[in-house]
Amino acid sequence: MQTLSATDLTLGYGDDIIIDDLDITIPKGEITVFIGGNGCGKSTLLRSLARLLKPKVGEVVLDGADIAKMGTKEVAKKLAILPQSPITPEGLTVYELVKQGRHPHRGFLKQWSSDDETAVNNALTSTNMMHLKERSVDSLSGGQRQRAWIAMTLAQETDIILLDEPTTYLDMTHQIEVLDLLFDLNEKEGRTVVMVLHDLNLACRYAHHIVAIKDKQIFSQGKPEEIITCHLVHEVFQMMCDVTFDPRFGTPMCIPHGKGRCLIKKQTATELA
Q: Does the domain at residues 4-78+158-272 carry the CATH identifier 3.30.420.40?
């Protein structure tokens, strides 16, 4: 199984530093979720781990080698990334999209093989998209379209999958559909999954490991049940909250403070005492 880490990592755009002198090791065979406020560097860090952004300082190490010194196809055989809101060429079918995931495994003169076909069919089956393979991607619902893109990354047959906000713009049903799919891929196939998520409660439900980012650094990391506290949420998101436990899953559940209709009788200080 492939390993992924970074040391002394400094990232930015022009003179703007987004991540500064950061060290991170992604746990193998687990689901890791990056959390943090808007603009804190979650997506920037993910892009760097996928070699889409060159570090200003430091290095990303994939399977023991500096990723910057590896060939594009070599990286793509070990690591797949699904960017936020990918754009599909008009008229492309699900099958044609998923076939693109086999590109890293094909040479200039290599013909489409039975191994390629098997990988595509397995990806379509895993994502429950086989019955939609002849449909154009742009005709699908949001959840189906996201599953088609995930199928393409699965066709690469990599141990590591990176996803930048895979549930953005999806309704509640499709969010759970996509996250359940990724959970199953981890549970059944041992894939290492790294995601950026905005919904803290869903991050706690699905992640084995959470990385909270603030002020260009890792503020805290670990199991959700060990690190998600009122203090962390206040420091990372500048929000007051209560942290309780999800009654169904037992994972941390954040209840933000703020205004809204309150149907619970407000207790006085004497009553609380």
A: no
